[in-house]
Every structure is written in C-alpha cells, then in structure tokens.
Specification:
Blueprint (H helix, E strand, L loop, with lengths): L1 H37 L3 E2 H9 L1 H10 L15 H17 L1 H5 L10 H27 L4 H26 L4 H8 L6 E7 L5 E7 L2 E5 L4 E8 L6 H19 L3 E7 L5 E5 L1 H23 L24 H8 L2 H16 L4 H14 L4 E8 L3 E8 L5 H5 L2 H8 L6 E5 L2 E7 L6 E2 L16 E6 L5 E5 L8 E4 L6 H13 L7 E6 L23 H25 L4 H7 L6 E6 L9 H17 L5 E7 L9 H6 L2 E4 L5 H8 L14 E6 L2 E6 L1 E2 L7
Parallel strand pairs: 1-3, 5-6, 12-22, 15-18, 15-19, 16-17, 17-18
Antiparallel strand pairs: 2-3, 4-5, 6-7, 8-9, 9-11, 10-11, 13-14, 19-20, 20-21
Helix pairs in contact: 2-3, 2-9, 4-6, 4-7, 6-7, 7-8, 9-10, 17-19
Length: 689
C-alpha cells in the first residue's frame, strides 16, 4: 500500500515537473516573440528615412513601398543599373592588366585628366559598350537612361583617378589598384546599446571601401544618382557604415557620399565627426524608431510628421500618409479650421508693403496696388515707377526667394496695368469639391463641362468640351503635384451632372491607383483599361465609334452631336476618355506609333462626334509628349512640373512657370493666349448622385 502511494506521488511529481517545463517553454517563447516584435532588425537606410520623415519610415516598415525623396530635376529609376556598373568597373580595374598599365609611370608623371580618360575608354570598350548595345536592342527607350548612367560613371571614374594618383606615390603599379579598392564582404551588422538598456540590431551594405595612403585612412563610399534632400539624414546613414566597420576592424574609417547626378558632388565626413554622430544622435533616434513602430491606429501619439514640410511635396507615399495617419475626426476638425480660416484673409497689405521695401533694396521702385487672395497663394499687384523696366522685376524671382525665405521662387508676371507677384500662403486652404459642384441631372442637349479649378475671385472655371479650344486636353504634373486628385475631381464633376444615359466614360489607368473606386460605376464605356494591348483596342474602338457617328450625322443631315441629339431619339451619349500616365505606354515603338495615330485622328475629328480625350502624364518629356500629341490636344493644364523644360512642353513656347507651382493642385490653365492660375478641387470621397 505504502509502495503504491509512493509510486503515485512520484508519478504526480513527474507530471507536475513536465507541465511546469512546458509552461516555462511557452512563456519563454512568448517573451521571445514579444521581444522580437519589439526589436525588429533595422538598416542604415531605414535610419536615414527616419531622420527624413518618421511617418514614411513607419509606412515602409509596415507596408513596403518607395522611400526616396527625389528632388525635381533629378533622374529616377537608374540607381540599380548605376550601382551594378560601378561595381563592375571596380572589379574590372582590379583584374584587367590594361588598367594596371596606365599607372606604370610615376605619380609625378601622371595627369588626372589623361588617367581618367584612359580608364573611361577601357571600361567603355570592355564592358559598357556591350551592355548598352544589349539593353537598347531589348528596349530602345533605355538609351537615354543609360546615357545618364554613363554621365554619372564618368564623374565617378574621375574621382577614382584622383585617388589612385595620390596612392601611386606609395604603391607600385602592380599593387596600386588592389591596395586602393579594399575587397571584402560589404554586408555589415552590429548590435547597438540603446539609452534604455536594450539592444538594436543594425544591418547595412555599403557601396565601396577604399584606402587613402596619404591620409592613412579607410573611407567607406556611398553612391547616389540624385542629390539628397537632407544632409543630416545622409550623414546618419554613412555614420552607421563607418561605425560598424570600426567595430569590425578597430581602425578609424572616414566616409564620403558621391552624388553623381545631375552633376558630380562629393560630401566628405571625418571619422571623428561620424563617431560623434552615432553617439549623440543615432542611439537616441533608434530608441525613437522602436517607439514609433509600436504605434497602431487609432491610438494617440502616432509617429510625428517630418520637420521639413517641403519634403511632403516630393513624398513617394504622400497619399497613403494623408489617409493613414489622419482619422475622420481629425479630417472634420481640419475642415472646420479650413472653413473658419477661409473667412479671414491673411494680411495681404503687410506682404505688399514688405515687397515694396524689398524691391526698393534692389534699387527697383514700385507702388503697392492691392492684392487678391487665392486658396494657396496671395497675388500682390505692383505698379513699377516711371522708367523702371518690367524685365527688372521679372528677373528678381530668385532674389525674392532668398530675401523672403520662400521654399520656391515666386511667380512674377506682367498683367494689364501692373506686375503680379504670387506669394505662397502660410495658411493654405483647399477648394472643397462639394462647395462648388452640386448633384443634378442635365438634359442630353446641355453643354458638357469639366471642372478645372478655382480662380483668384473664388469662382470655379470650367471648360466646355464642345468648344474647339477645350475639346481635348493635355494634363501634366510631377509626383506630388495633385494630378491624380485633379483627374478625380474632373471626373466627378462630370458624373455629378450627367446621367449614364447621356454620358459614357472610358478610363485608362496603367498604374491602377488613380481610379480604383470607379470600377463599377454605370457610366463606364468599358472596363477600366490597365494594359497597353487593351489601350490600343480601346482607341481603335473610339475611332470606329467616331466614324459610325459621322455616318449617322450624314443620314440625319446634322453637323455635330448636339444637332443630332436635338432631332433624334434615343440620344447618343458623349464619350470622355481619361487617359492617366500616358508615358507608361510610350516605351515600345510599335505601341507608341499606334496610339499616336489614334490620338491624331480623334484629336482632329472627334469633337463634333462628341468624343473627347484627356491625356495625362507625370513625365511630359519631349519623347513622350510628341509634336503629334501636342498639336491635337488644344486644352492645356499644367500642375507642378519637374523642370522648366517639362513646363514648356505642356504650355508651349517659353512658358516655364509650371516648374515653380506649389503642388497639391496648384495649376496653370491655358485657354488660347490666356494663362489662369487656379486651385483644383479636392474631393475627400466619391460623391455620386
């Protein structure tokens, strides 16, 4: 009996120990899981993003997507190719005997320009020429991007030539290149101790490591194919690379950033500066990043906004940021503030007097003639003194930007009896769609108008599609300009006033992000087009529809759609084709040729048939918006463009002002010789009758 009892107790103890071990294992695994979610691995690149904008860092960490703030006039989409070819150059220089032969002369006999030229020629002959031929044979549109890559490589090779000549004083020709370009694993990782006692894993991959024999220092290089927008963020990224290399090698490591486009610029940082940055800034920033990542909506204290509002204009995830971080209650609050703020105007007179004083400091005499307040800017009217040439005011845009502390140069233009200076409002307002467009059903014979934007007097300007000057439109604007919102508000202005019986809409959306909410609307002429083959088919259908309508007009003895619908029933609906991001279809020559011919025919003849084209692109370059396109789309809307050249292509002639617009729906609307500066409508949500 006692033996059995002891046996039962032993078995019970064994089971309790087993259960306790299982509980401990589960608890330990849970703690590990919690710690893992709390302390995700971060990279040096993500630290750079967090310095630029905490919210963009958060969005990328949770949803992925682009994180590069690319300034206007900077090349995009060539970074990977450039890095690959730069790496190919370094590897080729280290192994190809002809590169070593360049340095057989002593350092004093070597000339930087000659050495750089010889290295470029060798690399072009051995590697780049073949790479170029294959790429262009596969896709002819790659010629221009690869030309830009070659331009960047030339600047990089020039800098390498300078360093190699310095090191030639300390190395023979045989070992020079091998001792200058340090060949080792470029991927790094390190655990940094944070102020709260936790550790954070940091990983990264640098572009190149070199040794400068004169400075007796290693230097880690970072290559960029654009000019960085935030020097402190750039410093943080390379500081981590240098610090991780120091932890690995225990020797000082300098750093340099080579920005190769649009022109070569070098940013150098000493090890002492880099080490201080890590200890004084980055440890604290990493702890903040952990806190930001733990936030979940709709809790309070989301990641803060960027301290550089100008970055919002070029943010790659601007729309997602605005919708994700602003709750409906905050939206309502912003709308209330917007309404209240619209009722009171900024002190335009004070700004006018400040302009008069500033021009006087330039030696230019003007009188203040009043001001008009638009949603996003104030137009100050100035009368030049007798003898003052208007051209002297027009040339002072950059000087005003500096003196008044503006993010962008103000637009200055001659008007009837005065010169206008457009200054951005600090309390910028929106033009809400519902304040200007009301739902109504118009008859088939009513004019079909599209909403363009609100002018200085607060009046909505619209374009009549039956007018020969505004029957078809070319719309251009870079990322952040508000092009997508403009197209959406334009589309909604049609849907809110015309029934599906009298109006059909054809939508082309290759990026699949502009019109997702319109997939099921009854106005659709056909399902939303998202690929080039279907786009070609759609345009062919519209051409056939146009020809069919002209046959009906001929039989009915009518000149156009309006006359036909007055006489015949059922009425023929107008068809409006909104073609977003036209440039996406221009890569292949065959597709480009077919689309251009269709646009040419429709542009020349489709107005009277009641078929209208609205072609939009964020890349209004000469190779995209060809003369055929421009000559057949008389209506022009330019939102902010990436360059003056893009502005000229949209508006024609020497109209470069679109490059200096404020973004977010600030636009120029050209009707004949007149140019109107407007604010496009903003529709918070779809509002259909």
């Amino acid at each position: 009996m006692i033996y059995c009892l002891n046996l039962d107790l032993a078995l019970l103890n064994h089971r309790m120990k087993f259960a306790n071990n299982i509980f401990n294992m589960i608890n330990h695994a849970s703690e590990q899981s919690t710690e893992k979610s709390k302390n995700v691995s971060l990279s040096a690149t993500k630290v750079r993003v967090a310095f630029e904008c905490p919210r963009l860092f958060y969005l990328h960490q949770h949803f992925g997507g682009n994180t590069l703030f690319i300034p206007p006039n900077n090349k995009i989409g060539i970074g990977n190719v450039f890095h690959q070819l730069a790496n190919d150059f370094i590897n080729l220089a280290a192994t190809e005997p002809r590169f070593k032969a360049i340095f057989e002369l002593g350092a004093s006999q070597l000339n930087v320009e000659e050495v750089a030229s010889s290295m470029r020629q060798l690399f072009y002959k051995i590697k780049f020429s073949n790479y170029l031929d294959k790429a262009v044979e596969k896709d002819a549109s790659q010629a221009q991007p690869l030309f830009d890559v070659w331009k960047g490589l030339q600047g990089l090779i020039q800098r390498f030539a300078e360093l190699l000549i310095i090191n030639r004083r300390y190395c023979n020709a045989e070992t020079l290149i091998r001792n200058t370009f340090i060949s080792e694993e470029r991927k790094l990782e390190h655990y940094l101790q944070l102020p709260d006692g936790t550790q954070q894993r940091i990983a990264g991959e640098f572009d190149c490591l070199v040794y400068n024999f004169e400075a007796k220092r290693l230097c880690v290089l970072e290559f960029k194919t654009y000019q960085p927008v935030d020097s402190s963020a750039q410093l943080a990224q390379v500081a981590l690379y240098s610090y991780m290399l120091w932890c690995k090698k225990k020797v000082a490591v300098d750093s340099a950033v080579y920005c190769v486009l649009p022109e070569f610029k070098e940013y150098k940082y000493s090890w002492e500066q880099l080490e201080n940055s890590v200890h004084q800034l980055i440890h604290h920033k990493l702890q903040q990043m952990q806190q930001w990542l733990s936030w979940e909506p709709p809790n309070n204290n989301p990641p803060p906004v960027t301290t550089q509002p100008n970055l919002c204009n070029i943010c790659p995830q601007k729309q997602k940021c605005q919708t994700y971080f602003i709750s409906p209650s905050e939206n309502n609050k912003q709308d209330e503030n917007s309404t209240t703020s619209n009722q009171s105007s900024p002190d335009a007179s004070a700004m006018g007097e400040q302009l008069v004083t500033t021009f006087l400091s330039f030696g230019i005499g003007v009188d203040y003639e009043g001001a008009a307040v638009a949603p996003c800017f104030i137009r100050v009217k100035l009368k030049p003194h007798l003898g003052v040439r208007v051209n002297s005011l027009l040339k002072s845009s950059a000087d005003l930007q500096v003196q008044l502390g503006l993010e962008n140069p103000p637009l200055i233009a001659p008007q009837a009896g005065y010169v206008s200076v457009d200054l951005p409002r600090q309390d910028r307002q929106v033009a809400k769609f519902e304040d200007y467009i009301k739902s109504q059903v118009l008859p088939a014979t009513a004019p079909v108008k599209i909403a363009i934007g609100v002018n200085l007097e607060g009046r909505l300007l619209e374009a009549d599609l039956s007018d020969p000057n505004t029957c078809h439109f070319l719309v251009g604007g870079t990322t952040g300009s508000g092009k997508s919102e403009f197209l959406r508000s334009l589309l909604l202005s049609l849907l809110n006033r015309h029934s599906p019986e009298y109006l059909k809409i054809a939508l082309v959306d290759p990026k699949r992000v502009t019109f997702p909410e319109f997939e099921q609307i009854p106005w659709l002429y056909s399902p939303i087009v998202k690929d080039s083959d279907r786009a070609i088919k759609l345009m062919d259908e519209l051409v056939a529809q146009m020809e069919s309508r002209y046959q009906k007009f001929e039989k009915a003895g009518c000149a156009d759609l309006s006359a036909y619908n007055h006489r015949s029933t059922p009425p023929l609906p107008r068809i409006v084709c909104i073609f977003d991001e036209y440039a996406d279809f221009m890569a292949e020559k065959e597709i480009r040729t077919v689309l251009e011919q269709s646009i040419k025919r429709l542009g020349a003849m489709a107005r009277a048939a009641g078929i209208h084209l609205i072609i939009a692109t964020q890349r209004p370059e000469a190779k995209v918006v060809t003369p055929i396109i421009r000559s057949n789309l008389p209506g022009r809307v330019a939102l902010r463009t990436a360059s003056e050249a893009d502005s000229s292509i949209i508006l024609g002639g020497k109209q470069t002002a679109a490059a200096y617009l404020l973004g977010k729906g600030d636009l120029l609307y050209q009707v004949g010789a007149q140019l109107h500066r407007l604010q496009s409508l903003w529709a918070k949500s779809i509002q259909l009758p």
